[in-house]
Amino acid sequence: MTEPARLPTRQLLQPDLPAFDTRGVEPALREALAELLLTMADDEFVLGFWDSEWTGIAPLLEEDVAFSSLAQDEIGHARVWYEMLAQLTGSDADEIAFGRQAEEYRHARLLDHPRTDWAFSIARRWLYDTADSVRLAGLTRSSFAPLAEVVAKVRREERYHLLHMDAWLRRLAGHPGEPRDRLEGALTTLRSDALSVFAPLDGEATLIAAGVLDAPIAELADRWRSVASGVLSELGLPALAEGLPPLDGRSRAEPSESFRWLWSEFTTVRRLEEGVTW
Amino acid sequence: MSTDDSTRPLDQPAPPQPATPPASGRREELGRLGDGARTDVFEVFRQEKDGDPMRHAGNVVAPDIELATHYAREFYSRRQESVRLWVVPRTEIADLSDPDLLQPPLDRSFKKPGGYVMRDKLEVAKRRAKAATKPKIGHPQ
After folding, report:
1. Hey, are the CB atoms on A62 and B36 less than 8 Å from each other?
2. One pLDDT digit (tens) per residue for chain A, 278 residues
3. A180-183 contacts: CB < 8 A, separation 24 or more?
4. List of chain A residues whose C-beta atoms are within 8 Å of the C-beta of residue B60
5. B63 CB within 8 Å of a chain A CB
6. Which end of chain B is less congested by CB atoms within 10 angstroms, N or C?
7. Predicted complex ipTM
8. Domain limits of chain A?
9. Quick one: fold of A26-267?
10. Chain B contact present for A53, CB below 8 A
11. What pTM, to 2 d.p., does this model score?
């Protein structure tokens, strides 16, 4: 069966996304890639929206600008992944990003928690950024060239996100009393959900066989645990949970109350009038 | 189109009630800096492109040099407008503004290069330089 060629109509609007021919990708791999891209896009998208909630109320003005900029970066990364997914599956990036019901999002459970307090947002972001950097490292030699190309760019931005988060983690950990207490509380709340970033994917075996992913996701989880645990134990902070990543770390029959609220926020304008061209 | 429920099409889900109400201000409980927090001013210099001089860009307020560096990056290069930044604690800058040292009251016009007519001398020098570009073997000048 041959499919009609699809013109890269959005190419001019999306300079970060390399053009690629979707016809060369066999259906099983396409499905597996689509699943991987959706989870990565949803992670970045949801984290970006949660952290944008700090705009205007961060602890100091400079941090307000910086943290908002980081949040915007994540939404920018989500945009590239959604665009790639749309090109792969012949759909529309905006439709995927804003057109789904709350229970259809595939972000990790770590990102179901609300913004909460500053220490909580720092703890969550640090856990996510360290996990994301391990995941991206596992994709750098991906046989799917467009993915490898974008991963290389995204990693360069995630590097300073990580530096920024590390500075805050150490800062809060180093101030006994309220800052450290709140940080410990947040890490205790998140210690098991952090593993959900590495929840297994249905198409994992296909991705490994095709050389997209360099190891099983459970192995990525181990790599992450050794990196993150090193820092946490150095600072005497609560350790990460033991065990394998939860099977249902990304699928949910019912979204959390807080995510349902966030979804209603980020789809507000979109839902004003269906199908309109903005 | 209104967001009022009475005009919302029936096929659209009702917006759920907020589970997490938006916070109200910078001074609220969640985001405050804390009693022991201290911030300093850091001056930021930026280089727009390779070879340009470092120019004063502005300053940031931060609790330490590490965060100051992150903030400088966000304030002065998040749109890729710099290739290099210098972040300097203001307390480390020697400030010199004494008018006796910088604007002495006596006439100093004799220290300025003005007053010399350079035009004719420049013409001669240019001619000489042009003649010298024709190389003579064994005589670099």
Report:
1. no
2. 556 665 555 444 456 787 788 888 899 999 999 999 999 999 999 999 999 999 999 999 999 999 999 999 999 999 999 999 999 999 999 999 999 999 999 999 999 999 999 999 999 999 999 999 999 999 999 999 999 999 999 999 999 999 999 999 999 999 999 999 999 999 999 999 999 999 999 999 999 999 999 999 999 999 999 999 999 999 999 999 999 999 999 988 888 999 999 999 999 999 898 878 77
3. A182/A117, A182/A118, A182/A119, A182/A120, A183/A119, A183/A122, A183/A123, A183/A237
4. 62
5. yes
6. C
7. 0.78
8. 26-267
9. Ferritin (1.20.1260)
10. yes
11. 0.80
